[in-house]
Design a protein that fits this description.
It catalyses: ATP + protein L-histidine = ADP + protein N-phospho-L-histidine. The chain is α+β, with helices and mostly antiparallel strands and 260 residues long. Helices cover 50% and strands 18% of the residues. It starts with a helix and ends with a strand. The protein binds adenosine-5'-diphosphate.
Length: 260
C-alpha cells in the first residue's frame, strides 16, 4: 500500500521519523548547494585580481623593465583587495555554516554607534562628509556580541561613506520601537545618507554575496561585494533583520532591528 512505499504518509511515529529524516536530508542538500555555489563564486572573484598581478609581473620579468611606481601602487591595490576578499570569505563561510558561536553580553547600543562612528570619522572627513549620531535615549540595552554588531554597522556605515559624494551628509539614528506585529520592543538603528542611491532593480539583491550595483565599480580600490552579506548574517544571528530604502540621486536608508 501507499504507506509502505511512502513511509512519510504513515500516521504513526514511523511516519514522523521518516518525515524528519527527509527534512534533514533536504537541508543537508541545500547546505551543500550553498557551499558549492560559494566555492565557485569565490574562485571567480579571485581570478581577476590574480590575472592582473600575474600579467604585470610576467611582463616585468620578461622585459626586465622595472615596474613604475604607479604600477607598483596598482598591484599593491590588487593584493590588498585579494587579502580583504580572503578575509571576508572566511568570515562569511563561518557565519553561513552557523559555526560562529555567539557570546552575547548586554551592551549599550548608543556606545556601539559612537564606537563605529569614531572608527569611520576619518574616512568621512577625507570626503568632507558630515557624520552625526542621534540617539532617542541615553541607554539602549541590547544583548549582543559587540564585535559582530560593530562589524555589521561598520560595513553599512563605510558603504554610506563610499557611496556618498564629497560634501554629503550621513546620519545615524537609534531608538527603541514597538512594532505592531511584535510583542517585544526592538532597537532600531537607521543609517541615512544623501549619496548616489541604489537602483530599484538592484535593491532585492544587494545583500547577496558578490552582488554589486553598477555604479559601485567606481568604488575606489573596489569593494568585495561581501560587506552587506556579512552584515546581514551577523544581524540575523542575533535574531534581528536589516531593511533598505533607496532612491537614485537622493540617497539610501539602512535600518537594522535588534531584539532588546
Ligand atoms: P561592496 O563591497 O561592493 O560595497 P556590499 O555588499 O557592501 O559590497 O554592497 C553591495 C552593493 O550595494 C554595493 O556594491 C553598492 O552597489 C550597494 N550599496 C551598498 N550600500 C550603499 C549605499 N549606502 N549607497 C549606495 N549603494 C550602496
Amino acid at each position: 500500500d501507499a504507506a509502505a512505499i511512502f513511509p512519510e504518509q504513515r500516521k504513526d511515529e514511523f511516519g514522523a521519523i521518516a518525515k524528519a529524516l527527509r527534512e534533514m536530508n533536504d537541508s543537508l542538500a541545500a547546505a551543500e548547494r550553498t557551499r558549492k555555489q560559494l566555492m565557485s563564486d569565490v574562485a571567480h572573484e579571485l581570478k581577476t585580481p590574480l590575472m592582473i598581478i600575474q600579467g604585470e609581473l610576467e611582463l616585468a620579468h620578461e622585459t626586465g623593465a622595472p615596474l613604475s611606481p604607479a604600477k607598483q601602487a596598482s598591484l599593491l591595490d590588487e593584493v590588498l583587495r585579494l587579502s580583504r576578499l580572503v578575509h571576508d570569505v572566511l568570515d562569511l563561510s563561518r557565519l553561513e555554516a552557523g559555526m560562529m558561536e555567539l557570546h552575547p553580553r548586554t551592551e549599550n547600543l548608543v556606545v556601539l554607534l559612537e564606537d563605529v562612528t569614531a572608527k569611520t570619522r576619518f574616512m568621512a572627513e577625507d570626503k568632507h562628509i558630515q557624520l552625526s549620531v542621534h540617539a532617542e535615549e541615553e541607554n539602549i540595552p541590547v544583548s549582543v556580541e559587540k564585535s559582530r554588531i560593530l562589524q555589521a554597522l561598520y560595513n553599512i556605515l563605510s558603504n554610506a561613506i563610499y557611496y556618498t559624494n564629497p560634501g554629503g551628509q550621513i546620519r545615524l539614528h537609534a531608538e527603541t520601537v514597538h512594532l505592531p506585529d511584535r510583542q517585544q520592543p526592538y532597537a532600531c538603528i537607521r543609517v541615512e545618507d544623501n549619496g548616489v542611491g541604489i537602483p530599484e532593480a538592484d535593491l532585492p539583491h544587494i545583500f547577496n554575496r558578490f552582488y554589486r550595483a553598477d555604479h559601485s565599480r567606481a568604488r575606489p580600490s573596489g569593494g568585495t561585494g561581501l560587506g552587506l552579506a556579512i552584515a546581514q548574517q551577523n544581524i540575523v544571528a542575533h535574531q534581528g533583520w536589516i531593511e533598505v530604502e533607496s532612491e537614485v540621486g537622493r540617497g539610501s536608508v539602512f535600518k537594522v532591528y535588534l531584539p532588546m
